[in-house]
Design goal:
Layout (H helix, E strand, L loop, with lengths): L2 E5 L6 H10 L3 E5 L2 H6 L2 E4 L5 H10 L3 H9 L4 E4 L1 H4 L2 E4 L5 E2 L4 E7 L12 E6 L1 E2 L15 E6 L1 E4 L5 E6 L3 E8 L2 E4 L7 H12 L2
Parallel strand pairs: 1-2, 1-3, 3-4, 4-14, 5-7
Antiparallel strand pairs: 5-6, 7-11, 8-10, 9-12, 12-13, 13-14
Length: 205
Amino acid sequence: MSLTAIIDYGVGNLFSLTQSLKAIGSDAVVTNKEDEIRKADRIILPGVGAFEDAVKKLYSTGLVQVIMNEVSNGKPLLGICLGMQLLFDKSFEYGEHKGLGLIPGEVVPLEGAINPALKVPHIGWNKLNKTDIDEPLFNNLTQDSYVYYVHSFYAKTDKQYITGVSEYGIEVTGSVRYKNVIGMQFHPEKSGRTGLSILKSFCDL
């Protein structure tokens, strides 16, 4: 059976994610060990909290180069929430901070970009509008699929990398892909059947 490595670097929502993978019958290991990441068939980079803190903790594990090497070898990588934001070139969350540079673009505040009447952070369920009909992770989704968000910053990137958006005063980047690197601003592990379907499709890659 294939194996998913969930990167443990101290800022992830690991319990919900592992339970979701268990629910779809997928083997997963929560790890900060190089050999386990290399043995896995795919990688998930979770994340909650602040960008600067997360990227420092990720680098402190010594796993960044391992992740980069595995991605360059074609292994699928899924970044979730803050984990997705780390995939971009940089973030402007309380300063300017360098990301992993796996997807071109930058992470910017919702505040100032959306109607001031809308709350920040953006918390709750939103309809996911698929913008890439060829994205295999969304094969089993309908046009009325809803996903769960918790975030104050969002990714600005070229449309060619965006696979899904949600409306929150503006079109918020919901999901992205560049080759075998995938990101989701929403939490699939908190998005009910829709989220489980997406995770199942990722584990089938």
